[in-house]
Structure formats: C-alpha cells, structure tokens
Amino acid sequence: MNEPALRLRQARPDRAAPGGPPVLELRGVGLSYPGQGPPAQAGGPPRRRPGQPRLARHRVHWPPAALSGIDLTVRPGELVTVTGPAQSGKTTLLKVVALLLRPTTGSYLLNGLDTARLRDRGLAALRGREIGLVCQPAHLLAGRSVLDNVMLPLIYAGRPERARRGPALAGLDLAGLGAQAHRLVSELSAAERQRTAIARALVTAPRLLICDDPTAGLDPDQAVQVIALLTSLRSAGCTVLVATGDQLAAAHGSRCLRLGDGAPGGPPA
Amino acid sequence: MTRARTRDPARPTTLRTADAAGEALACIAARPAGAVLTCLPILLAAGWLVAVLGLITTADAQVSAAFAARLATVVRVSQVAAGPAPAPDPYPAGVLRRLGALPGVLADGAYWRVSPAPGPVLAAGDRAAGAPAVLAATPGFLSATRVRIASGRRYGPWAEAHAAQVCLLGPLAARALGIGTVRGQPAILVGGEPCAVQGVIAARPARPALADAVLLPASAATRLFGPPGRSPHERPELLIRTRPGAALAVARQAPYVISPTRPRRFAAAVRRYPQGLRDQVAAVLGRLFTLAAWAGLAAGLLAVAVVGSLSVAGRAPEYALRRALGARRRHVLAHAACESGLIGLIGGLAGASLGVAAVVLVARARGWVPVMAPLTVLAAPPAAACATALAGLIPAGRAALIQPGLALPRLTP
C-alpha cells in the first residue's frame, strides 16, 4: 500500500472495518421518470370520459421504468461493480446512490440513514461529506487549475481556505497527479482528467466512492492505471461502487450486480 | 484528509461569503468572453445613465450661466419723485467712486438727457440731423452699457475731468449728419457749441436709445447747458453693471451708498431674473432626460436578466456539478448572484468612466464647462452592482432550481 493510501486509511479508520454495518442498502428501489411505468392509481386504468373513443381492443404499453426492484447492500471496504449493456440503468442507479435522483419506490439507507426522510439540505450535506462522485466524462471546471478543481468540494464542506490545500494535494498525490497540481485542466490527457476527478472525489474522505464508467475512453494502459488506483483505494478501506461495461474493470470487484432494462439479473454485458 | 467523524453527517453544508465571491471571480476570470458579453448591457446602461445625468447637470449650469449673463447684471438707479426736492446734482463724483468699490460692481456711470434741447445739431455744410437726443454721460456709463465703437474711440476720464467738448454719435445720428468715420476729425455744433466727434457707436447698440443720440461728457454738458434735473422728467440716472448674481445685492446697497441719510430718495431696479422661467425650462429638460436615463438603465437590466438566463441555460451542467459536490440551492443562488454583482460592479466602473468621458467630450464640443455631481459618478458602480445582482436573481433562481440528476448528463468534457 502506498503512502497516500495509508494516509487515507488513517483519515477514516471507521471505513477500514470490513464486515461492519452496511454503507448503503437499497431495498426494492425503483425509479420512473414522468411518462414511464403505469399510472400509480387505484382501481385500474382511468375511466373513459363521455364522448371519448373506446380503446377496449388496444392495450396500452407504458415505457418501462428506469429502475425497478433493485436490492443491493454494500459493506465497508467492498468494491462492487454494476454491469450491464448500454441503457440498462447503470448510470441511473449510480445517480440514485449519489443522491442526485430520489427513488420513486423502495428505500435507500446510507450509513443507516433513511435518505427518503431528508430534505434538500440534508441530501446536499451527505453528497458533500459521505459520497465521492466520479462522473463520466470527468466534468472538471474549464479554465481552472487541477488544484482548484480538487479543492472545490472542500469549499462546500465548509473548510477554511488554509485547510483546503493540504487535503487537495494529498488527494492528487494519491491519484498520482502531485506534480500536475497547477496545470490547467485543459492541458491534461483523458486519463489525467479521470484521475483528477477521482482525486476530487476523495478529497473530502468520503465513506463511499461512486465511479461511473471510469475507464471509458481510456486506452488499455491508462485503464489499467485507473483500475489499479481503485483497487488500492479498496485496499485502503474505501468502499467503492463502480458502474462499468469493461469486463477487466468488473473482474476486480468483490461482487457484481448485473442489470438489464433497469432490473437486476440482466444478460452479461 | 484528517477529519474526525463525530458530528451529524447530514448537518447542512456552508458557503462563506468570501468563498462565494472568490468562486464568482474565478468563474468570471475563467470565461472572460462570456463575462464581457454579460457585462456589456450594464456597461452601456451605466454609461448612458451617467452621461445623461452629467449632461443634464452641464446643460442646467449652461442655462443658468446664459440667463445670468444676459439678464441679471444691470442695476438702474433713479431718483424718485416723492420726498424733498432733489438736489441739483444728486450724483457727485464721490458717489460713483463709492459705488464702484462695492463687491460685484464692474462699471457704473451717470447719464441724463439734456433738457430742454440745446438747439439743432449741425455738421459741416450746415447738414442737420433730425432731432437726436443729446445725452450727458460719464465714461463709466459707456462701460456699463458696453458701448461698441464702429469708428474712433470712447471718451475717457481725461475728457470728463477737463469738460472737453467732445462727443460720440449714435449710428442713426451719424448717418443723418453724414459722418461715417472720424478719420477726417469732424466736428459738429450742438446748440451752437462746437464738439469734436471722437467716435461713432456701432450699429444696434445694447440700449436702443443710443442709436439716435449725441453723447457728451457729463462735465462738458453741465458746463455748456447747465446742471441736470431742471425738468422733473429728465432727472439723471445711474447705470451699474455687476457680475452675474451680484445685481440684487448691489441694488439693495446702492441707495445707502448714494445717500446714507436719505436712501429712500433713490430707487434701484434690477431687470428681474426670470428664475421661474429658467427653473421651468430646466425642470422640463431634466424630467425628460432623467426619464430617458432610467429607461436606458431598465433596458440594460432587462438585457442583463436575459443574458444571465441564457448563460444559466448554458452552464446548467456546472451548477449541477456543484450541487453534486455538496452545494445547496442557496449556495448556487449566492454564487450566481455574486457573479452577477461582480459583473455589474465591473460594468458600472467601466460605464461610469465612459459616461464621464462622454460628458466631457460633448461639453468640449459645445464649448460648455462640464459639470457633474460627484455622487452620480461615485454611486454608479455600486448601484450598478446592486441592480445587476437583483436582475441576476432571476437567472440565479433558475440556476438554484436545476435538478442535478437531470442536468449532469449534459456535462461536456
């Protein structure tokens, strides 16, 4: 284990306890966007109004829900991968876990906290302190330096300015970008951008790191670097949830959730 | 990365004011082209407001100066008929000297019409004028009435002191006498008394009565035709020219200077300063231009709101990212409002400078003195910042309502 990973482990001793209480628990989670799924009303389909044409011989086919019946429990120190074909709901599931979308059915417990009972400010607090999100693509602020991008979550975490630089540089060291701190993000390669996003996600020392297809668009060597980084984080006790269509990346997970059409148990990716 | 987990993880996140301002400034610096585009409407609006208000002030001062210069600088002092019989010479030389010492007095002089008429005015070859008025006037009177000479020169203190028999001819009287120039040292007879023509007054004199008149030094007229005031309707008068704004004060003081013991024997009249008319003109112009100025500012703020809304639509992914990293709605609102305010401050500073430059250029082109209230220039940048921040609340509100889960996929690398 490298030195930054050791520091990460020291920063959050509670997450280096495999087998402890689950970091996240999804029970029957489903998500429907407006216009998806059957209308949730009792008494069957809506009544025909007077003068409305009869549709008795036609069956209405509602678009499937984005997610349905997802059950997932992730314990500290696990690296769980979510796989499935394109449009199978991997990113949507990660957005639900990252508290960017509220599930329409089921329950979601984060560190034992029922997220359905939280309002916007509580969700924002959990996003800022408990969750590190690595998006695809990396979504860095253009025209800003690598260090500025990595320090961004610390601003909303309420850290004073003097207490931001140290953790941000440590996160960059962990991601292998310590020497690139003052470069503009526009000067980085795709892999460096991805690693910058990982450093940004780690800077608040979150309990849960969520990565959406972290190896997409990278060449094999770069993908191996990113996978190695995620594996070292897991070794340091970080809980990681990765959505990926890459079999190599999926093989490094301790468990794999396979999705198809937004439901568990889809075909192999 | 050393943080103890002892507090509630769902406690609200915070955003310091300095951090909000710093992030807003960094965003502006990262997108200078977008900032300039957003800044442009408020720059033009602030510049327009400062320029119009400055031009109103300048034009107002110009109107004041024009009215004051033309109408409120002449005091006419006459001896009232009521009271004791007037003295034969109510304006001895000492009076003119004392009046000239009053603050604000530029020139003063006495004049009267010689009455009864001394007789025909004849030029060489017995050429007669019609019936020109024969006026006795001190040299100060010529200065006070700003007599312009077409040919020759005015008579001065020496002629007055020595009762020299010289005269000035009004343009009509000169034409009637056939005298166009004094190059041949012409002379005329006034009531049989010879007088050398020292000058011919230019056409259209300030006092129309001087056009058809023969002016003699007061001392010479007294010596030749007797002291003034023999006829009750032809009493001598004083004419005082003052600096703009001093006429009323001089008019109040003049009777006491002439006769400290009997000031009521004299009445000083000022050509009324048309304050009401001037104020009316200034008020109408001011209302019109102020309306135009505020309309321009409102249009600028509307443009800021529209440009800001467009900017928010383009930057929705960035706001969604901030929300994903822990920002609350109010943090996004504060960030967007700070950014608008800073852009407004920059636009206000540039606009105020532009407005001042416009006022100076217009004033110089018109030959006016640029006059601006300091408050207008100093208050423009902070006012523009506040107004832009308020106008930016609409797009900021839209930014705060962005759903991060829906806006995030639209992020571009």
CATH architecture call of chain A: 3-Layer(aba) Sandwich
Report the β-strand fraction of chain A as a percent range.
15-25%
Instruction: Catalogue the unreliable spans of chain B.
Output: 1-5
Any idea what the shape of chain A is? globular
Describe this structure in words.
The complex is a heterodimer of chains A (269) and B (413). Chain A has helices spanning 3-11, 90-97, 120-129, 146-156, 165-174, 190-202, 220-235, 247-251; strands at 24-31, 67-74, 79-83, 105-110, 113-114, 131-134, 208-212, 239-243, 255-260, 263-264. Chain A has 269 residues and is of the alpha/beta class. Chain A has one domain: Rossmann fold (3-Layer(aba) Sandwich), CATH 3.40.50.300. In chain A, the strands form 2 sheets. In chain A, strands 6-7-8-3-9-10 form a 6-stranded mixed sheet, with helices on both faces. A 4-stranded antiparallel sheet of chain A has the order 2-1-4-5, with helices on one face. The mean pLDDT of chain A is 80. In chain B, strands 1, 2, 3, 4, 5, 6, 7, 8, 9, 10, 11 and 12 form a 12-stranded mixed sheet that branches. The radius of gyration of chain B is 38 Å and the shape is rod-shaped. The model of chain B is unreliable at 1-5 (pLDDT under 50). Chain B contains 14 helices and 12 strands. Chain B folds into 2 domains: 17-67 and 276-410, no CATH class; 73-274, no CATH class. Classes of the chains: A alpha/beta (269), B alpha+beta (413). The interface between A and B is large, with 53 and 39 residues.
Task: Give a short synopsis of this structure.
Chain A is of the alpha/beta class and about 270 residues long. Chain A contains 8 helices and 10 strands. The model of chain B is unreliable at about 1-5 (pLDDT under 50).
What's the structural blueprint in terms of helices and strands?
The complex is a heterodimer of chains A (269) and B (413).
Chain A: H1 3-11, E1 24-31, E2 67-74, E3 79-83, H2 90-97, E4 105-110, E5 113-114, H3 120-129, E6 131-134, H4 146-156, H5 165-174, H6 190-202, E7 208-212, H7 220-235, E8 239-243, H8 247-251, E9 255-260, E10 263-264
Parallel strand pairs in A: 3-8, 3-9, 6-7, 7-8
Antiparallel strand pairs in A: 1-2, 1-4, 4-5, 9-10
Helix pairs in contact in A: 1-5, 4-6, 5-6
Chain B: H1 17-30, H2 32-71, E1 74-79, H3 93-100, E2 105-113, E3 121-123, E4 127-128, E5 133-137, H4 139-144, E6 149-152, H5 157-161, E7 166-169, H6 171-177, E8 187-190, E9 193-201, E10 213-217, H7 218-225, E11 237-242, H8 247-258, E12 266-270, H9 275-314, H10 316-324, H11 329-366, H12 374-391, H13 393-400, H14 404-407
Parallel strand pairs in B: 5-10, 7-9
Antiparallel strand pairs in B: 1-11, 1-12, 2-5, 2-11, 3-4, 3-8, 6-9, 7-10, 8-9
Helix pairs in contact in B: 1-11, 2-9, 2-11, 2-12, 9-13, 11-12, 11-13
